[in-house]
Specification:
single chain, 124 residues, mainly alpha, 5 helices
């Protein structure tokens, strides 16, 4: 006597009314569960954190400078970044800490650009 193997796909692809409805319900349930899991796992960054703004933008603008983006464009973007940091800061101490962190990261990347082979173009 030979054992019959039932595959899971065969259950959900049955031609009867129960199989078709079950297939549709399982797809909706799976989509809903996946969406709920993704939404639950999102860690929203605090967009009003001036230190986080300073660190992220200093890194991006430092790399733009290192890769040869025109200085006037980097300066314009830097001005906008400093304005957004000032707007997000709750007090002068928080503003000073964020500006210090911005200068520290940007300067580190700019020094790295000068120590490269004389070219300001980033290597790809």
């Amino acid at each position: 006597m030979e054992a019959e193997t039932i595959l899971p796909d065969a259950v959900f692809e049955s031609k009867g009314d129960i199989g078709v409805g079950l297939n549709w319900v399982m797809r909706i349930s799976l989509s809903f569960a996946t969406g709920a899991l993704l939404l639950a796992s999102i860690d929203v960054a605090d967009a009003s954190d001036p230190t986080l703004l300073a660190e992220t933008n200093a890194y991006l603008l430092g790399n733009a400078h290192r890769c040869g983006v025109a200085d006037d464009r980097v300066e314009r973007a830097g001005t906008m970044v400093r304005d957004s940091i000032a707007a997000a800061a709750r007090d002068s101490a928080e503003l000073a800490a964020a500006e210090s962190r911005y200068i520290e990261i940007f300067a580190a990347i700019a020094v790295q650009a000068k120590t490269e082979t004389g070219s300001r173009r980033a290597k790809s």
